[in-house]
Amino acid sequence: MASFPSLLFLLSDGIQGHVSQSRGVAGWISRFTGADVVEMEVPRFSGWGRIRLLKIKSLLLPKADSKKAEKWLCQAGGGGLLRSAREKLVEINYNPGTALFLSAGNGAAPFALALAKATGQKCCTIMTPTTLGTAPFNFAIIPEHDYPRSSPNLLVTLGAPNMIREDLLRDEGSSMLSRFPSEKDRRWGILIGGDDANYAIPPSWVGEVLLPLLEEAEVGDVEVYMTTSRRTLPETEGRIEEAVRGLPHVRMLVLGARDPWNPVPGMLGACERIFCTEDSVSMISEASTGGHVVQILRVGRQGGIRKALQDLTAKMVGKKLLPPQRLWGIPRFNLMIESFCGRGLAMEYDPERIDEKPLAHGKINEDLSFNEARRAAEWIIQGWKS
Fold this sequence. Notes:
Blueprint: E1 7-12, H1 16-33, E2 36-41, H2 47-56, H3 66-75, H4 79-91, E3 99-104, H5 109-119, E4 122-126, E5 139-143, E6 154-157, H6 166-179, E7 187-191, E8 199-200, H7 203-219, E9 223-227, H8 234-244, E10 250-254, H9 264-270, E11 273-277, H10 281-289, E12 294-297, E13 300-301, H11 305-318, H12 330-342, E14 346-348, H13 372-382
Parallel strand pairs: 1-2, 1-3, 3-4, 4-5, 5-6, 7-9, 7-11, 9-10, 11-12, 12-14
Antiparallel strand pairs: 8-13
């Protein structure tokens, strides 16, 4: 068996956040070992097809042999993936333990497991697959706010692994400033997420939170670089456009729904201070990896029975009637943000304390030592022979 993977198959479900996590880990493994990285798109399902193949039939995969794994792949439209993987393995004269199938998210995890079984290789999941769990995988990289149980095949991370590296920040920062030149010595970056099942960023948020922040920047002679996400409501994006019109100190506004370019690495590389809405685990993680003490901007909450159940669960956990693993939704994400703050990687935005350094239990990441993708890659390489 090889002492480290010489070939990485990155399985993509097309979700940008998942792909970013996988690319982050795969990129560091490749950098450390010289392994080739091959990206493969997995089939996507919805409705009954997703339930039947990914949630019911995939339950057989943990105990499946290579033939049964191959049968599942053919049923799930993954026969082409298996052929391509085998062809690539033949090119490198493979042996067992030569390659790693790496995935993030529920949609790609069963394919990673099945392909590894069908080819006699290893597999890694990033995030907890809700149906399969983490036990069937050789390696599992799981955020601490999932409260995973300790296991030799499991690495617990703070937030999400990502592709942020020092060279990327330098190059993208220079590129961004060439497109949107700066006239001041000070620059702030504002990262705005959007609505999901838990959080809401309505147009009114712009006047309540964003406009006062932009006014602070103007008073402080600071230029602003800003981006929204693909989850941002069109009405909110429209209100943001209105708010920044005629503000010369807002040097850049990239609307995620309209522009495929990702300006976040450039903003992290070129701005001295980063503000990020609380709904985006990925952007908070990227900003922290990029060496920033992230200023967390609070947003609205979705109402209804979902929020009521979340609050009830949190109350029962607080009274020790339920274990912390039962937390979900906003209470669980709040714990993640508290962990970032406790390590000095983030702090809640407060106009009265904007220039304060956070009270940190750990070292602030000015030397870019906080990098969960790099740590995950090192862990996989160290555990490869076991």
